[in-house]
């Protein structure tokens, strides 16, 4: 099963500069995070993951359901818990995903939310086959574009 592990680091998610605290503690946290990521790669479960910049650098696109959208620029001050990063992993069960999340370097006050990801197989065989073919085609196109520097 595919899961997303969402990290909520608290106020650090909204820092204007590098979110790693200065000094030896910050360097140790960064080393611990890289070691954790490497363990997941070595175990063959990590499919991707990134840290996110502050909400002030982003935008929200709100859809009204009738084809109209409204754009709200960040920061999103009404957000009490700001997402700071994520991992996408492949695990046998929620329990296995929780076991991995419990190993993440996570300073006091931070938390990690784990949620299963919808995959094409959840929508039945025919839909899954169509979506897999479409995703494969998009991956090839993206790779070609990236190799051309575009």
Descriptive report:
The chain is built from three helices and six strands. It is α+β, with helices and mostly antiparallel strands. The longest helix is centred in the C-terminal third of the chain and has 23 residues, at 125-147. The two termini are 33 Å apart. The relative contact order is 0.22.
Reconstruct the topology from this structure.
Layout: E1 2-8, H1 24-42, E2 46-51, E3 59-63, E4 69-73, E5 85-90, H2 94-101, E6 111-116, H3 125-147
Antiparallel strand pairs: 1-5, 1-6, 2-5, 3-4
List the helices and strands in order.
Answer: EHEEEEHEH
Report the principal-axis shape.
Answer: globular
Rg estimate, integer Å? 18 Å
- Main beta-sheet strand count, sense and barrel state: 4 strands, antiparallel
From the N-terminal CA to the C-terminal CA, the straight-line distance is 33 Å
Low-confidence parts lasting 5 or more residues at pLDDT below 50? none
- Tell me the name of the CATH class of the largest domain: Alpha Beta
> Which percent range fits the helix content?
25-40%
Mean pLDDT: 86
**Could you give me the name of the CATH homologous superfamily of the largest domain?**
Dimeric alpha+beta barrel
Helix tally equals: 3
State the domain count.
2
By oligomeric state, this entry counts as single chain
**Strand arrangement, major sheet:** 2-5-1-6
Give the second-level CATH assignment, the architecture of the largest domain.
2-Layer Sandwich
Report the structural category: alpha+beta
Strand content: 15-25%
Can I get a quick summary?
The protein has 2 domains: 2-117, Alpha-Beta Plaits; 120-150, no CATH class. 33% of the residues lie in helices and 23% in strands.
């Amino acid at each position: 099963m595919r899961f997303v592990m969402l990290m909520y680091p608290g106020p650090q998610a909204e820092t204007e500069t590098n979110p790693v605290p200065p000094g030896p503690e910050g360097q140790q946290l960064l080393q611990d995070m890289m070691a954790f990521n490497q363990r997941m790669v070595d175990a063959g479960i990590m499919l991707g993951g990134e840290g996110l910049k502050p909400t002030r650098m982003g935008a929200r696109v709100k859809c009204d359901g009738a084809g109209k959208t409204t754009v709200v620029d960040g920061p999103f001050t009404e957000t009490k818990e700001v997402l700071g990063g994520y991992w996408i992993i492949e695990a046998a069960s929620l329990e296995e995903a929780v076991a991995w999340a419990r190993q993440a370097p996570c300073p006091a006050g931070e938390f990690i939310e784990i949620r299963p990801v919808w995959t094409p197989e959840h929508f039945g065989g025919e839909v899954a086959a169509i979506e897999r073919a479409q995703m494969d085609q998009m991956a090839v196109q993206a790779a070609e574009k990236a190799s051309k520097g575009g």
